[in-house]
From TrEMBL:
Cofactor: pyridoxal 5'-phosphate
Record flagged with keyword Phosphoprotein: no
GO biological process, one term: isoleucine biosynthetic process
Gene3D superfamilies xrefs: 3.40.50.1100
UniProt superkingdom: Bacteria
Record-linked Pfam families: PALP (PF00291)
Gene Ontology molecular function: L-serine ammonia-lyase activity; threonine deaminase activity
Record InterPro entries: Ser/Thr_Dehydratase, TrpB-like_PALP, TrpB-like_PALP_sf
Protein name as catalogued: Threonine dehydratase
Length: 333
């Protein structure tokens, strides 16, 4: 289980890691390794387990890494803490989020004495809005989806020296923070790791580490079939926007991938699979019935990929990326 907050590491180490704000920088193995030590322990070293009942249902040994047991109920605290936790940033941080990333960024910002503003698309769960406001965040509800909210956040920060826009798919250190999950999974030597793909930061960061430290492991991204933009972009090697992103896995509902995330994923992801809503439903029920875990739809897409595609590998791992929002329930009884 995550422990208490770590002591601040030496400033000379931070100086080497954070010498400049370079959102477009390539992902660094050195920084991922450093992040695995420097990120607040409450966000890292989350449990992983191979449940016999779940593995039997899926016809293979399946390890699940449970990221729902952190203070922000998702893996997003890793990247937020690595980005903001040790800089001298003084500006108010602004982002677009359906909940998890906004909550993580807000919690880290508050601990550092920074203001935070989150742009949330229309339809974001009221409970998520309440949680954000409870953290002292200014919440602006705008846009039909996360891409519209991201655009609104960009317009809001433009020309404002007191604000800084944070985008998951553009900030290398967010992906590197997420990559610490790869550091924790690599000793398992899985044949295949299945990773949800929304912004692409998780797959890029974990894939970067695994391809260097566990090269026989296949890294497979998983998108909702109703939000295939990142899958198309990965195959094309450049961003391919779609007109719509329709999925109840709202944190995967990306229409316009960032060039940076597509580039990061190109060399470290072996395949990207699409899963239909019914497969996600089935996976949610299976996790509930075997592990007793209620996770968000995005967290279940790795299990959905096993059910729908039977990817290769007798020893498989996936990441349960976040807890379920009150409106993101298993829809079948």
């Amino acid at each position: 289980m995550p422990g208490q907050q770590a002591e601040s590491p030496p400033r000379d180490e931070f100086a080497a890691l954070y010498h400049a704000h370079m959102p477009n920088a390539a992902l660094s193995l050195d920084r991922i390794e450093a992040a695995s030590r420097l990120i607040d322990p409450v966000f890292r070293d989350t449990p992983h387990l191979a449940d016999e009942s779940l593995s039997r249902s899926l016809g293979r040994e399946v390890f699940v890494k449970i990221e729902t047991l952190t203070p922000v109920r998702s893996f997003k605290g890793r990247g937020a803490d690595f980005l903001l936790g040790h800089t001298k940033e003084t500006r108010t941080v602004v982002c677009a989020s359906t909940g998890n990333f906004g909550r993580a960024l807000a919690q880290v910002a508050r601990r550092r004495g920074l203001g935070a503003c989150v742009f949330a698309p229309v339809g974001t769960a009221p409970a998520e809005i309440s949680r954000l406001r409870g953290l002292g965040v200014r919440v602006v509800v705008e846009g039909r989806d996360i891409d519209d909210a991201r655009h609104a956040a960009s317009v809001y920060t433009r020309g404002r020296g007191d604000l800084v826009l944070i985008e998951e798919g553009r900030e290398a250190r967010i992906a590197e923070g997420a990559g610490t999950i790869g550091v924790e999974l690599a000793p398992l030597r899985p044949d295949t790791v299945l990773l949800p793909v929304g912004s692409g930061a998780l797959a890029a960061g974990v894939g970067r580490w695994l391809k260097a430290r566990s090269p026989r492991t296949r890294v497979i991204g998983v998108c909702a079939a109703g939000a295939p933009a990142m899958a198309h972009s990965w195959r094309a090697g450049s961003p391919m926007a779609t007109a719509h992103a329709r999925t109840f896995a709202t944190s995967l509902a990306v229409r316009s991938p960032t060039p940076e995330a597509v580039e990061w994923m190109r060399d470290v992801v072996d395949d990207v699979l699409l899963v239909e809503e019914k497969a996600i439903d089935d996976a949610l029920r299976l996790l509930r019935d075997t592990l007793g875990l209620l996770v968000e739809p995005a967290a279940a897409v790795g299990i959905a990929a096993v059910l729908a595609h039977d990817p290769p590998g007798a020893r498989t791992a996936t990441v349960l990326t976040g807890g379920r929002s009150p409106v993101e329930a298993v829809r079948a009884p």
